Amino acid sequence: MVEYYFDIETIGCDESKHKIITIQYQRLDEFTGQPLGDLVILKEWGSSEKDILAKFIPIFIGEKPFDFIPIGDNLPFDFEFMRAKSEKYGEEKETLFDERERKLRDQAAERGRRKVRILIRKSMDSQFAKLKYNPYDIKALLHPVDFVVFDGLESKEDLRKIVFLSKGVDNEQLNGLRNSIEKTVEEKRYNWQVARVSIDGRIEMTES
To answer: Does the pTM of the predicted model rise above 0.90?
Structure first.
């Protein structure tokens, strides 16, 4: 995934009357947001509006789904302006921008998923992060057990295993609770219950 600062400058807000005067972009570090490359500015007055669009559109579309992820303010305005100008200059508007919009939705979802993984790992003890569990499989309980891991939940139809995960502590009472949980699991003293709550507030419990 490659993120870019992206913006266009126009001489007005009406794409049917006003023109794009600059298209600018710069590669960013996906974790820090800091610039990595040079700021590129395509200038209409150095060539023409049609020429700067012709130069930028292949970069914008990219060869792969995550080649160019735009980061900026008011991106819908920028996209719609470019869409209208591409139609004007015969750049196959529908195929070009509809496909790009689909890619952007996929990119946004994937970017969010990657950020969540990072945030989850940062919130965990460094020793837990080394265990290589999928962060989406880890759910916080906090007490008396730190986490429960549904190993394989995100990537498989069937779970490989369920793991209670806690950091060792020097707390006699808490360790006693955890030992009792461990013993309960070992002796298979557990079941699966489902609570069904009706509209009027009645609760019906079923178990297997």
So the answer is: no
